[in-house]
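Handout, section B. The chain below has 269 residues.
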Amino acid sequence: MAKPSSKDTLAEYALRKLGAPVLEINVDDDQIDDLIDDALQFFQERSTDGYIRTFLKYQFDQATIDAMTTDTTTTVTQVGARQANFLEQNNFITMPEHVTSVIKIFDFTSKNTTNLFDVRYQWRLNDLWDLTQTEILTYEMVNRRLEDIYWLLEGQKQIRFQSRGDRLYMDLDFRTDVNDGDFIVFDAYRALDPSSFTTLYDDIFLKRYTTQLIKRQWGQNLSKFQGAQLPGGITMNGDQIYQQAQEELNKIEDEMLTKYEMPPMDMIG
C-alpha cells in the first residue's frame, strides 16, 4: 500500500523498500513493532508535524482543592541516625496522555484595564498610536517584555511540568486563589495520536526513518553471521548493511532537527 495508514501497513511499506518479498528481511515482527514505536516517538517529539498547540480547560472541584492543600511526607535517615521529614505539597493534577509541554496558565483576572498607572496602559497610550512608524517585530518583543514585567509585579502563577511524570504542579494558594467550580486554561503542546490521526503514518520522514531503523536492525541481526558463506559462494555482510542504515539515519535526524524542529526561542533580540 503506497499510503500507510497503520503500523501494519507502515511495516509492509518499509519492508518493500528494503527488497521484500524478493529478499528475505531477517527482522522479527516484534522488533519491527518496537522500531515503529521508536520512530513515532522521535517524530512526535521533534517534528512540528508530530504535535499541535492546544488549549486545555480544567474545572476545579472542592475535593481536588482540598487534596492540593495536603502534603506527602518522606522520612530520610540523616548522619547520626537521626530522622528528618520532608514535606511536599500535593499541588498537582494529572495531565492527559500525549501532552508534551505546558507553556503557561492564563491569568485568573482580566487583562483589560483603564488604570492610568498600569504599565500596559501607558505603553499603549504613548506608543501604540505610532505603530505605523514602528517595526512590528520590535513592537511584539517590547510588548512581550512588558507582559513579563507585569506578571513579575503582579505575581505570575508559576507552573512546573515534566511530560514523563504527567503531573502539572501549580504553585498557587489553593485556599484563596481557587474556588469550587473555577476553570483554568492551559496553553500546551500535545503529540498527535496516530490512532486518531492515521495520516501520520504517511509522513515522508516517518516512512524514511522507519525504513532505515528496520534496515539497521537487519544488519545488526546478520552481523552475528558475519563472513558465513551460503550456497553459491554468497557471504553475509551485516556490518555493511548496518553502517549504510546508520549513515542514512544520521542524515534524516540532522535534517529533522535543523529544518523541522521548533527552535527553542522564536525570537532573539
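Note. Residues 7-49+195-260 form one domain. Compare this with the example in section A.
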